[in-house]
Amino acid sequence: MKTLDDVDLSGKRVFMRVDFNVPLDKQQRVKDDLRIRAVLPGIRKVLDSGGRLLLASHLGRPKGKVAREFSLAPAAERLGNLLGGPVTLAPDCIGPEVESMAGKLKEGELLLLENLRFHPEEEKNDPGFSKLLADLADVYINDAFAASHRAHASVEGITHFMSVCAAGYQLQKEIDYFHKAMDHPQRPLAIIVGGAKVSTKLGLLENLISRTDYLLIGGAMANTFFKAKGLQTGRSLVEDDFTQKAASLLHAADKRGVKILLPVDVVVAPNESEGGRARQVPVESVPEDMSILDIGDRSVEAFQAALRGCRTIIWNGPMGVFESPPFNKGTFALAEFMGSLDALTVVGGGDSASAVRQAKAEDKVSYISTGGGAFLEMLEGKELPGVLALEKCSEKRPCSI
Q1: What residues act catalytically?
Q2: Is residue 133 within 8 Å of 56, Cβ to Cβ?
Q3: Which domain holds residue 319?
Q4: I want to staple 359 with a disulfide (CB 3.0 to 4.6 A). Which of 100, 304, 335, 354 is the partner?
Q5: What φ, ψ does residue 13 adopt, rounded to 5°?
Q6: Could you tell me the CATH number of the domain that includes residue 323?
């Protein structure tokens, strides 16, 4: 797979797929610019090299129709603030007007194309649409790790029509950190998995059991494991259809010598809106009329004790309903502790990344991935279509023009 440093960018029109699918507030302003800041090094590299840059992204799910609330205008404004100058937003991502604007770009200038998903052909990976995107440029750069698990036109299809394809700095960084953490980890390796459902992370859990030394399970998905062990879970979210699978995963881990840690105490309340009635109880004593909404203090201590001696730690998924205090304490305590360790600490997934930032530990962990689904699929051992497309393109064609 070629990277930005392998490509001659001077004077070339460069189509760079980025991921500006960022959260917006009620005033349609960017609320979290992590994904925009993450690709600034790649953007500056192209501009400083004399490239004529076309940035392309999606935002939200407009379902193939033009919708003002999904315009990339807020992203253009935020990017302009970060770059120190206005960023022009094209009226579309294809068409005569866009072609004219792309053709008039001077060296060191950029144009942000409008939301790719205003066209249904983007998500359908339509060859005709892919070709129209490819015709805008000489070089294709994928710097959208968070979208690389989707075989979409701007991620996979476009590479079939480009003579030069390469990975951007952010995509390269994501893959490098993943390989350090998973393929060549310093051991012991611990993986923390949280979130709501076992069903969405079965592939991940099955893949990780054969590769990790410690597996720490929290969040609502731990409830299904409690049920598998015969514990009462009150009114908590439980996936009854997966209790047998949870039991078999515990058995498989024990057989392989993998240490699985489940919470030993939990924070319960009638529901997440009644934080004033929250209290901690042992996992064996969850009241029938209560829901498990966070891990307790003893669980935090047990998790910290296990992590203290680890050299590599990967975290995906919060430990509780961290958006609703006081059920954020377990997640925040874990984030702060990870930031204090002398270890490679990699955080992946939108909720986990958000929790780390809210806990003011963003600058203390080794790396925060920009990709939720893409990070999860890599943990499951799957190949990402966007990355595979770059590899195939690099194998077949020269790296410069």
Answers
A1: 35, 197, 350, 373
A2: yes
A3: 187-342
A4: 335
A5: -85, 120
A6: 3.40.50.1260
Domain membership flag for residue 228: yes
- Residue 226 CA, chain-centre distance (Å), reads 28
Q: What are the angstrom distances between the C-alpha of 155 and each of 125, 138, 166, 216, 292?
A: 9, 16, 12, 34, 40
Same domain, 298 and 392: no
Contact at 8 Å (CB) between 156 and 393? no
Q: Is pLDDT above 90 for 371?
A: no
Confidence bin at 401 (pLDDT 50/70/90):
very low
Residues 160, 251 share a domain: no
Confirm if 281 and 236 have CB atoms less than 8 A apart: no
In the chain, the percentage of residues whose pLDDT exceeds 90 is 85
Written as six digits, the tokens of 23 are 């959260």
Same domain for 74 and 204? no
Q: What CA dihedral angle connects 115, 121, 122 and 127, to 10 degrees? A: -130
Provide the number of structural domains found in the chain. Answer: 2
Distance CA 51, CA 57 (A): 19
Please check whether residues 162 and 199 belong to one and the same domain: no
Average pLDDT over residues 310-318: 95
Q: How many residues does the chain have?
A: 401
